[in-house]
Amino acid sequence: IYSRTKLRASKLAKIYGIKNVVNSINNLYFLSKPDLVVVVVNAISMNKVSLQCLKYKWICLFEKPIALNYLEAKKIYQFSKKNKAKSFIALNRRQFDSTKNLLKILKKYKEKRIVIVNDQEDQFKAKKNGNPKKNY
Q: Do 51 and 73 form a contact (C-beta atoms < 8 A)?
């Protein structure tokens, strides 16, 4: 597990029995060799973090929104295409076909899975970090 806040990552690792807490996306990729990375960061951080993740040969599942504005989204898309990355944006809805298909796939696997569900970001905290809505 990796988080920009090591304390947060350590707490989650302890709760879910995750062995390794790493200090970078690079270490996450090379030490654990995962097939998939789930990127859950605030909208302001998504551009930087997504571009780091798209360098590696894993499937990237990004929590929405993928960017603060069209130009950032275009840059992320172009970088993903250039690197032939497999990337997806989660839409957080149970009734989307992608979710239904994923549930069918997951039924085949009996091993332990970890799922954390968080609701909307703290809007007051987001406001302190700028005003993302002005770009829409």
A: no
Structure tokens at 32: 């654990």
For residues 48 and 67, the answer to whether their CB atoms sit within 8 Å is: no
Instruction: Give the three-state DSSP class for 61.
Output: strand
Local structure of residue 42 (DSSP, 8 states): -
Q: What is the pLDDT of residues 60-89, one digit of tens each?
A: 999 878 888 889 989 999 999 999 999 998
Identify whether 65 is preceded by a cis peptide bond (ω within 30 of 0).
yes
Q: What H or E segment, with its residue span, contains residue 135? A: none
Give the sign of the dihedral formed by CA 4, CA 21, CA 92, CA 61: positive
Q: What is the pLDDT of residue 129?
A: 58
pTM for the predicted model, two decimal places: 0.64
What is the secondary structure of 73-131 as a DSSP string? HHHHHHHHHHTT-EEEEE---TTSHHHHHHHHHHTT--S--------S--HHHHHHT--
Read off the DSSP letter of residue 40: -
